């Protein structure tokens, strides 16, 4: 049985607020990260320097704008696909910078591998959000 456009109104289908809560859960790491970095910009700069990223201050500012802006797009529904895709790409890039478990000492490898694959899964979920938003737009539903 193929899902139809009426699936969202079918009894037992997730309501709009439950869908929004799921989007909030996917956005939470970026909202938290962006707010913490904005509140302690010095620590955000130190984080960039820790990973060898330069120039640290402009990169830290760009990350804050990206995390908060893309999360806002996802939650508002305005260009949700773009916000989700931006966060997916950012997550993949950051994961390969920060969670290189294959280079970690043996005692740190397990935890870093877990973090690596959790972030890969998060990026996959964000790609699904983008894909579904684009699918709905093509079906003529607007910003659903």
Automatic annotation (TrEMBL):
Keywords: Membrane, Transmembrane, Transmembrane helix. It is a multi-pass membrane protein. Pfam families: DoxX. One of its GO terms (cellular component) is membrane. Its main location: membrane. InterPro entries: DoxX (IPR032808). Signal peptide: none annotated. The chain crosses the membrane at residues 54-75, 82-102, 114-131. It is found in: Membrane. This is DoxX family protein. It comes from Cupriavidus necator (strain ATCC 17699 / DSM 428 / KCTC 22496 / NCIMB 10442 / H16 / Stanier 337) (Ralstonia eutropha).
